[in-house]
Amino acid sequence: MNKPWQPYAQHILDAIAKIDRIKARGDLTHDEVLYDAALRNLQTLSEATQLLPGELKGRYPDIPWREISGFRNILVHNYLGNIDPLTVKSVIDKHLPQLETIIRAMLNEAGA
Q: What is the pLDDT tens value at each position of the chain, 112 positions in all?
């Protein structure tokens, strides 16, 4: 039996909303606490995208699903410090608005 995917989609939207609130509090490239909070929510978001059905994600090829999933591994296993606040800010600013739009579209199509 397949688990419903809608809760994971909502989880993604919740994480994006939290990141938006984090950004509103200050510059995450200069505030370690905001940076850590943003990273945590990006990790949550990345994990949740892995639980969306592949067939559903396939309808939205403009979203770099594999990179989003892979970003979680970079965040979790970043022992060597290969990721920096400017990269994280860039990912947030460039990719989250489009991801949010697509996730909302998925939920609307599903009648959720």
A: 468 999 999 999 999 999 999 999 999 999 999 999 999 999 999 999 999 999 999 999 989 898 888 877 777 776 556 678 888 898 899 889 999 999 999 999 988 6
Distance, CA of 81 to CA of 16 (rounded, Å): 24
The CA-atom distances, in angstroms, between 78 and each of 1, 70, 82 are: 35, 12, 6
This prediction's pTM: 0.89
Q: Are 6 and 112 in contact (CB under 8 A)?
A: yes
Which residues, at least 6 apart from 46, have a Cβ–Cβ distance to it below 8 Å?
68, 69, 70, 71, 72, 75
Residue 87 one-letter amino acid: T
